[in-house]
Structure to design on (409 residues):
């Protein structure tokens, strides 16, 4: 499984997150092309080399002529939902903004749908968040982790005046995620300023688990901010491979509840937040309860280490009075992601292995759909060509870690 591990030794912002992922290998041109699906005019994405203290990286800038720096969560959600972004990109971006809206609403005493985003409501913040979601998709990242983020000290200016660092929205997001904070550092804390912005905090606290798993790094990226500090003002990200999904200290769990008194309109957000809480998968199924009452069975599968977060989310975001938790054992096929080159561009394919052999190669829908939209082609033409090319992998030997042995057909 491919993962991203963020090392926010100098905090994080939206553009630093995007810059780090670009520096780690996400093609900025493909990110920009994917972001065209937002149908949001008046912006450009620019990536340029940056360096400090001998460490090279990338600085990404969103050049925008924004006419509305303040947008409500309702407006931003509709913008993303109506876009042609890949579904998983939409899910990530909506989850990030949803958590940000919840934090802002709590601070300002407003309803979530009507809360106004000021600094994070402009085009640049929308592009940063959606762009980071696109970059994760293009890199094939399946799970995100992070170290403790350094937030900064002192005070900062905002639309509401001078506020303490970390900003109230940032502090709220860290508390919502129960994110660990690094110990005090007299040298760095002596330089006042905001290191962790609300946008950067929203990305990390929504997508990442705050732990460092065992993995094999394949690339490293540095995303530079604009401040000049005595140390490299960059966010570092490691892209690497894990042998399998992280299972925590005691395996995996299935968490379920029956609900018969909640509006169906609320189910979509519940499922979205279960994923954000660390679920590998989440779903609903119609059931019939006592006295013939129609109801929903809500289920979430995840690592035992996320049992508390998933259970809390299911209780807080629904009308249930409790959840059932049971340990489970899964028998899983070996998985590996490869890339094939079609006449229209690259397409990732998921290889499925069993008994030491690759038994199937399935092109990724989102990659095929992006090409079909760009080239105005039937989806089946792109999928069929990618599948035909990928059949070369079928029959190859594959070990339990997902490593291929081409000579073993």
């Amino acid at each position: 499984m491919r993962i991203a591990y963020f090392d926010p030794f100098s905090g994080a912002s939206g553009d630093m997150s995007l810059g780090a992922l670009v520096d780690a290998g996400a093609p900025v041109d493909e990110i920009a092309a994917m972001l065209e699906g937002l149908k949001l005019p008046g912006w450009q994405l620019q990536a340029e080399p940056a360096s400090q203290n001998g460490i090279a990286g990338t600085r990404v800038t969103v050049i925008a002529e924004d006419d509305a720096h303040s947008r409500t969560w309702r407006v931003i959600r509709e913008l993303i939902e109506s876009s042609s972004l890949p579904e998983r990109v939409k899910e990530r971006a909506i989850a990030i903004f949803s958590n940000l809206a919840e934090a802002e609403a709590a601070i300002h005493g407003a309803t979530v749908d009507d809360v106004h985003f000021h600094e994070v409501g402009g085009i640049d913040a929308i592009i940063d968040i959606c762009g980071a979601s696109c970059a994760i998709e293009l890199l094939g990242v399946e799970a995100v982790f992070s170290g403790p983020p350094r937030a900064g000290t002192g005070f900062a200016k905002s639309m509401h005046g001078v506020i303490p660092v970390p900003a109230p929205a940032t502090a709220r997001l860290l508390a919502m995620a129960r994110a660990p904070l690094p110990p005090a550092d007299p040298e760095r804390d002596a330089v006042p300023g905001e290191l962790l912005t609300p946008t950067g905090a929203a990305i990390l606290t929504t997508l990442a688990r705050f732990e460092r798993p065992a993995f094999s790094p394949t690339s490293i990226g540095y995303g530079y901010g604009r401040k000049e500090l005595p140390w490299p003002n960059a966010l570092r990200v490691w892209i690497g491979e894990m042998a399998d999904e992280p299972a925590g200290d005691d395996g995996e769990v299935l968490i379920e509840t029956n609900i018969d008194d909640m509006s169906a309109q609320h189910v979509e957000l519940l499922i979205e937040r279960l994923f954000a809480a660390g679920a590998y998968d989440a779903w609903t199924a119609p059931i019939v309860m006592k006295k013939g009452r129609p109801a929903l069975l809500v289920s979430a599968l995840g690592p035992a280490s996320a049992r508390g977060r998933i259970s809390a989310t299911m209780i807080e975001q629904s009308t249930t009075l409790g959840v059932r938790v049971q340990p489970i054992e899964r028998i899983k096929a070996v998985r590996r992601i490869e890339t094939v080159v079609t006449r229209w561009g690259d397409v990732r394919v998921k290889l499925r292995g069993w008994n030491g052999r690759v038994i199937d190669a399935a092109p990724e829908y989102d990659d095929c759909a992006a090409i079909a939209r760009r080239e105005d082609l039937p989806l089946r033409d792109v999928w069929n060509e990618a599948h035909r090319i990928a059949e070369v992998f079928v029959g190859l030997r594959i070990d339990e870690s997902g490593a291929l042995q081409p000579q073993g057909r």
Q: What stands out?
A: The first strand starts at residue 2 and ends at 7. The chain has a mean pLDDT of 89. Residues 340 and 347 are 5 Å apart (CA to CA).
